[in-house]
Amino acid sequence: MTALDEIDRAILDELRRDARASMTALADAVHISRAGAHARIRRLTDAGVITGYTVRTDPAKLGHHASAYVTLAIEQASWQLVQDRLREIPEIEHMALVGGDFDVILLVRANDARHLRRIVLEDIQAIPSIRTTRTTLIFEDFER
Fold first, then answer.
1. What is the three-class DSSP state of 129?
2. What is the pTM of this model?
3. Across the chain, how many H-helices and E-strands are there?
4. How far from chain centre, in Å, is Cα 67?
5. pLDDT tens for each residue of 27-55
6. Considering just the CA atoms, what is the radius of gyration of the chain in Å?
7. Where does the chain show beta strands of DSSP type E?
8. Burial class (CB in 10 A: 0-12, 13-18, 19+), 116
9. What's the pLDDT tens digit per position in 103-141?
10. Residue 134 in contact with residue 119, Cβ under 8 Å?
């Protein structure tokens, strides 16, 4: 795919704001024709720039009153095994392999502090290749 131009970036910004926007509204917002917007979105999707559409939710309104970032130090050759086991834990909303003082960072959503404790101590720390964990509580979330 060729580099993204200003219109491509404007389309992506609009979709980040409202992925449910109609093609007409999207075209109007970026000052192109409806057919042009449709073609660009198809091109961005075919190129893998747009990988899907999602819904943002309020964790507290879903009953998740305890959230935390959990960092993991793992045995170096075990990432695939750890990743597979972490994917089995439904309370993990996001995971990333990172570089730095730790190897993996998780976003965990739990019903309450007791539930969060169980996830970290019984589910995550039970994975054999995890050497250490560090939990940082989230007091308030902010979306961009």
1. coil
2. 0.78
3. 5, 4
4. 14
5. 999 999 999 999 999 999 999 999 998 88
6. 20
7. 66-74, 92-97, 104-110, 130-138
8. buried
9. 999 999 999 999 999 999 999 999 999 999 999 999 998
10. no
